[in-house]
Amino acid sequence: MLLEREKALTLLHKHVKNERMIAHSLSSEAVMRALALRLDKDVEKWGITGLLHDLDVEFTNGDAKTHGLVAADWLLEMGIDPDVADAIKMHNEAASGMERSTEFQFALAAGETITGLITATAMVYPDRKVASVKPKSIVKRMKEKAFAASVKRENIMECEKIGIPINEFAELSITAMAEIADQIGL
């Protein structure tokens, strides 16, 4: 089973109250939808996965040992597609104790992570707009470890494991986020 978007959004708002985390979830959804289109995958499935990947972040307080596992369990109890729960579980390898191995897992890890780098980059621009961010700026920021230091560059580089070079991935992600700029405040 796959939740309809409105039900998934209601579920997200039930569990996540922080507006920045809501914006991150919406951004991740947009990037995952764009990746699904690019890779000829199920756009709804990938989008809902991006939207719900941090469903348990406030419940677990972002604990690396449990974040993702709790959300996966909740979703499995609801009868969600096991692939969705698996990708959500695997976006945090530390909790699962396993390494990502599927295209879906790589896509979610890379897609949700690049949103943080794009957001941080937009925030240093005078207009603070994602539409002003250029792919070359993201590629440059990838090399600046002190900039948005918590963003795991190795996760973003998993885009190459799904056949998308970093320049193209940055462009696809920026475009996806720019399309929902009004919803994410950027």
Mean pLDDT: 97
Relative strand content:
under 5%
Tally the beta strands: 0
Proportion of helical residues? 55-70%
Instruction: Give me the CATH architecture, please.
Output: Orthogonal Bundle
Oligomer: single chain
Q: Per the principal axes of the C-alpha atoms, what is the gross shape?
A: globular
Structure annotation, total helices = 11
Task: Give the radius of gyration.
Answer: 15 Å
Protein architecture, described:
This protein is an all-alpha fold and 186 residues long. It is built from 11 helices and no strands. The protein has a single domain, classed as Hypothetical protein af1432 (Orthogonal Bundle). Helices cover 62% and strands 0% of the residues.
Summarize the structure.
The protein is an all-alpha fold.
Which key features would you list for this structure?
single chain; 186 residues; mainly alpha; Hypothetical protein af1432; 11 helices; 0% strand; globular
What is this structure's SSE topology?
Blueprint: H1 5-15, H2 19-39, H3 43-52, H4 69-77, H5 82-90, H6 93-96, H7 103-123, H8 135-143, H9 153-156, H10 166-178, H11 181-184
Helix pairs in contact: 1-3, 2-3, 2-7, 2-10, 3-5, 4-5, 5-7, 7-10, 8-10
